[in-house]
Amino acid sequence: MQTEAVPNLNIADLEQKVKNMYREVALRPHEKYHFEMGRTLAEKLGYDPKQLDQIPREAIESFAGVGFFFDYASIKEGDKVLDLGSGSGMDSFIATLKVGKTGSVTGVDMTDEQLQKAEQLSMQYGFTNASFQKGYIERLPFDDNSFDVVISNGVINLCPDKAKIFNEVFRVLKPGGHMAIADIVSEKNLPDNVVCDATLWASCIGGAAQEDEYADAIKNAGLDIIGVINNDRYAFISLSAQSASKKYGVKSVSLLAEKKIQALVHLFVPGLACANLTPAIKHAMKDLQPGQVLEVISDDFSSREGVPAWCRLTGNKLLREIDETEDKTIFYIQKKN
Ligand SMILES: C[S@@+](CC[C@H](N)C(=O)[O-])C[C@H]1O[C@@H](n2cnc3c(N)ncnc32)[C@H](O)[C@@H]1O
Known about the structure:
Helix content is 37%, strand content 23%. The protein is an alpha/beta fold and 337 residues long.
């Protein structure tokens, strides 16, 4: 865990309390906690029961998320997905249903018992496209530009240095990739006696950042916020949490943010057939330095085969293809080194 961002908080104590809490969540999901859990919570938040039926029951029992974001996440077949603070793996397993055999989902968590449970379930139930790694989300053990989608549920509020996490998300996301998360924020700044209480942190209250500051940390990392919605179905159940929620506007939100691709040159010639488009792309690429990006807009359906094939042939990298309408396609092509 990171140490700088909240001066009066005992970070070592907080990390231990968070680990203790979520070890219990993994091992004894049917005990009483300060927060709702399990399948009842998941269905209440908006998870599709048919999808829940396709993933390990034990992962659902230990689900301790705070919102639903999969409509925002729009995960596609073949995507590489990273789940920050994956817990016992419920969201990771849901994501595997969407990425299919050609994609992969990687969960990261710092609590051994959560990690072991998720790993064991993935083996037991044959989720070969899911893997789980021990790590801190403030320093992710992954290369730059390696994931299409980053997801996270009820985790970032537990971490003192949120800016550091969003910087890491920006680093590991591919250009054009996005982050879809659910988390706890507050409308007003929380007073010191709430912020410095490690037990309230571990229950997803004390670490709730003021919502504008939370959004600024995301924007300062370089991500563009596309949308935020309140998860009104999430309720705090302990009295202290309910009172903080009422007094300071502590609430659950789902948020979508994107790592925008910065294209230097744009190419759009309406009506241009794919056969003539690829020579035009070749010509436009001459103006770019290696690593710079060309945006190509095409209204010829056959470009959906032609442009990726041209990129493979020439070694230039197709960063992203957006099939906007039935005919219109946007390609982002990065010039090879
Ligand atoms: C509220 S639980 C949510 C787990 C899971 N996302 C879910 O929805 O059930 C928070 C999880 O985040 C993990 N966590 C908290 N802080 C972390 C950090 N700095 N690095 C990695 N994992 C962390 C905890 O171990 C715990 O498993």
